[in-house]
């Protein structure tokens, strides 16, 4: 039981409302001013969806959105595959030499600041380019690799927590009845 005193102050509500206002008022103003028909940001000229039409007609912007969605889909697919493999190794293979280091490497992107991880990957790519000539430039491939690095940790943590809940005797019974390991994995894991 918690023995800490409960503070009932009317200022708690005021502070909470001020905090939410501080966080969400700029976003609300951005949404409202996105419907401004004026070219000047500070002058209100009326409601319009003109700028959304301009945005959709901008070929460079639409190309960037398409590239972002492509990278996101490819990174999510690769992270789902790699994260699932990592989760199976962490949960089903038990303790093995280097298992603590492997678990740390998988979960490191969750606890490291994104800026540090991004700079580390940038330095890695630059060092690899100088040492072996790959990657020749920092483009779509390196962005994809960085996103896979970030996302794999999330997939591995979520799937490993789900795998820990499953009863391994069900898997053993399925294999005793003649199911292949791949069949057991695909039928038991995703139902």
TrEMBL record:
It is found in: Cell inner membrane; Cell membrane. The keyword Cell inner membrane applies. Residues 65-191 form the ABC transmembrane type-1 domain. It is a multi-pass membrane protein. The chain crosses the membrane at residues 12-35, 60-90, 102-129, 141-159. Keywords: Cell inner membrane, Cell membrane, Membrane, Transmembrane, Transmembrane helix, Transport. Its main location: membrane. SUPFAM superfamilies: MetI-like. GO terms for biological process: transmembrane transport. GO terms for cellular component: plasma membrane. It holds the Pfam family BPD_transp_1. PROSITE patterns: ABC_TM1. Belongs to the binding-protein-dependent transport system permease family. CysTW subfamily. This is Putrescine ABC transporter membrane protein.
């Amino acid at each position: 039981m918690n023995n800490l005193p409960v503070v009932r102050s009317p200022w708690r509500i005021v502070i909470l409302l001020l905090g939410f206002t501080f966080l969400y008022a700029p976003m609300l103003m951005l949404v409202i001013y996105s419907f401004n028909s004026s070219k000047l940001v500070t002058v209100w000229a009326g409601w319009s969806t003109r700028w959304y039409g301009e945005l959709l007609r901008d070929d460079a912007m639409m190309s960037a959105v398409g590239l972002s969605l492509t990278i996101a889909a490819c990174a999510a697919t690769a992270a789902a595959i790699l994260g699932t493999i990592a989760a199976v190794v962490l949960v089903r293979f038990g303790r093995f030499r280097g298992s603590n280091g492997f678990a740390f490497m998988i979960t490191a992107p969750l606890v490291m600041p994104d800026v540090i991880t991004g700079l580390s990957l940038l330095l890695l790519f630059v060092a690899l380019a100088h040492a072996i000539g790959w990657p020749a430039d920092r483009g779509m491939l390196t962005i994809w690799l960085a996103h896979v690095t970030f996302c794999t940790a999330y997939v591995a943590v979520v799937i490993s927590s789900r795998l820990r809940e499953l009863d391994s005797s069900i898997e053993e019974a399925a294999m005793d009845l003649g199911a292949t390991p791949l069949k057991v994995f695909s039928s038991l894991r995703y139902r």
